């Protein structure tokens, strides 16, 4: 016996993109159920700094992300202001002034993302939508024209949901070692997870089972360098450990050579280091960097913290010296090739032989060495960490999932970190694209089921289960 029920729209994933999509679809009149595999809503959005940001214009986007999807970029940039206005209208705190130069090029505003997530949940429930946590999706299949059957499991019980539209908002595949091995083989298997642990590629797998195509480079991801080794790497410390200022120093592998051009940003270096044998390197910088960028707020309202001191206290390997020569001697004792490091500091820009892939990155420059000028000098061992993947499911500008022929798979949508190609090695924001694509998908899915004139009488899932409604 298998319990069975029907809804017009089912949203998979309870982060910002999923909650936004579900609340919008419900407000548009669709009967909606949101399913979350973890025991609480929020996903990685709840762990974020709460910065609503993206590229300010298409020219800036193209320069930063030359291989990104211009259609999706245009969608996000055009809808940015409207999305911001909707967040402000909800009543949550949003900074009055924009934060300039986010990730070196973006525009954005800090807002209370945790409160906003609760507001979206309340809106969904007020519109007769449903939320169920602790639910795992086992499979999805077409069960007829414009109809899908989801097999789910909750508290050990298998159940079926029949639906007209599915919105995939499961947050990427970074938490799945198997998915990472399949889609990003150049990235070390032991990379540190800097996100929620529920994003295991469920959306990607379900989309592929329905014939979806991939989009973007599945080997790319967003994250930041963190100390090595690191103790108590818990969500409340993710941002405290992140070395956002790494673009103001040089990054040197164990062979004494640099990996790539550090000036492009920490989120880029993070990806480069993930493709280096051992996935560790030493970030070298001077006192001017430590006392300015190293203690500055990476985002508005975050607060100041001495990131080097915080990392050292947590047990990270490090060095400090009055001269670069003395620093080399200390790093020699920590396993770095001293002879080659001396050459590197003198201007040798040959890429480290430990890098498994260098074609995507840009080679080191002598200019970056000019930033090492004020004593004392510091070295901090760092490692990469992954927050969410950037490659994913192919969609059109209505967020409808596409097959390999570029055709829509009717009734299936992907949002947030599940869709691929908006960010691609370069990064153009998480919360703003999640909110915007969620809005688009919610409206599109509601319109889809409305145009199909599918309006069966619905009862809440909880009522159906309570009354023992089943299908054999």
Automatic annotation (TrEMBL):
Names of required cofactors: FAD
One Pfam family from the record: FAD_binding_2
Listed InterPro entries: FAD-dep_OxRdtase_2_FAD-bd, FAD-oxidoreductase_2, FAD/NAD-bd_sf, Succ_DH/fumarate_Rdtase_cat_sf
Span of domain FAD-dependent oxidoreductase 2 FAD-binding: 9-56, 122-424
Signal peptide positions (record): none
Keywords from the named record: FAD, Flavoprotein, Oxidoreductase
Record's protein name: FAD-dependent oxidoreductase
